Amino acid sequence: MFENLQDKLDRAFKVLKGQGNITEINVAETMKEIRKALLDADVNYKTAKTFTDQVKEKALGSNVLTSISPGQLLTKIMNDELAALMGGEATELDLKNNPTIILIAGLNGAGKTTFTGKLALHLKSKGKKPLMVAGDVYRPAAVDQLQVLGEQVGVPVYANKESKDPVAIALEGIAEGKRNNNNVIIVDTAGRLSIDEALMNEISEVKAQTKPHEILFVVDSMTGQDAVNTAKVFNDRLDFTGVVLTKLDGDTRGGAALSIKSVVDKPIKFIGTGEKMEALDVFYPDRMASRILG
Ligand code: GDP
């Protein structure tokens, strides 16, 4: 995960780390290298610039030049700022409603159905009693896929293969969950290959009718800036409550993880780190920052 970015940041820091005495010019040059590393990682330009400007200001403001170990101090500042860039504190799901309704949104192939199964397992292991609703009406295989995942994680699935109406299926699923005392109802929805009006209208309608407490936008982290742009469009229409970044296990660059919070101002709540149902982590910005800086 993020190997390319780690290497580049490491190289940028090497110059400073060894030096007992550093100058403002050294700091400025290191920031330039760091900005380049961020741009190579597919972080958007504005985010990268604001970030390095801030780190530089904090570094000079905290007397990094006269510190005994300037490299270490700068690493600490970078760590704090990277964590802040990715959202600061971890943001938990709002699960206080009974039942809590969670809508899963995103494009085809992002990992929605897989995440629905992973989230059900995660909630079950926390003592919840979830139900999954198979709302991806255009991809018949998605219903089967969710049913297989349901068996695997031991969580029931509501499906209605006869219907092609995503709103009706979502409402039927919620009614079924209420009857069976499920305290979390996770509604998987249909995606499209790319953003189109029909998809946006449909998911907006599902939102309007089901009144979810959480809307999680699922996106493939390997798509970098595309992930960020897609997030922006979905957020403008849906005002989602959190982001799920999938396939971080294959993402060597990290641009989406670093840019998405500053662009859409919504927290990353979970990360997918593999195809298995257990490969889901709550997102902790500070841990991710430490990991990136090695
Ligand atoms: P959907 O169309 O959004 O429902 O996407 P799927 O859930 O069907 O996922 C598409 C593909 O991505 C599948 O082959 C999944 O196994 C894979 N996938 C999903 N999440 C992850 C992840 O975190 N890591 C990896 N490596 N693969 C994932």
TrEMBL record:
Instruction: Please state where this protein is localized.
Output: Cytoplasm
- Predominantly, its location class is cytoplasm
| Binding-site residues for GTP, renumbered to this chain | 106-113, 188-192, 246-249
Keywords attached to this entry: Cytoplasm, GTP-binding, Hydrolase, Nucleotide-binding, Ribonucleoprotein, RNA-binding, Signal recognition particle
Question: Keyword RNA-binding: yes or no?
Answer: yes
Spell out the reaction equation it catalyses.
GTP + H2O = GDP + phosphate + H(+)
| Domain SRP54-type proteins GTP-binding residue range list | 267-280
What's the entry's take on its domains?
Answer: Composed of three domains: the N-terminal N domain, which is responsible for interactions with the ribosome, the central G domain, which binds GTP, and the C-terminal M domain, which binds the RNA and the signal sequence of the RNC.
Role summary: Involved in targeting and insertion of nascent membrane proteins into the cytoplasmic membrane. Binds to the hydrophobic signal sequence of the ribosome-nascent chain (RNC) as it emerges from the ribosomes. The SRP-RNC complex is then targeted to the cytoplasmic membrane where it interacts with the SRP receptor FtsY.
**Subunit structure and binding partners:** Part of the signal recognition particle protein translocation system, which is composed of SRP and FtsY.
- Family classification: Belongs to the GTP-binding SRP family. SRP54 subfamily.
- For this entry, the protein name equals Signal recognition particle protein
Query: Which gene codes for it?
Result: ffh
- Shown residues within the full chain: 1 to 294 of 444
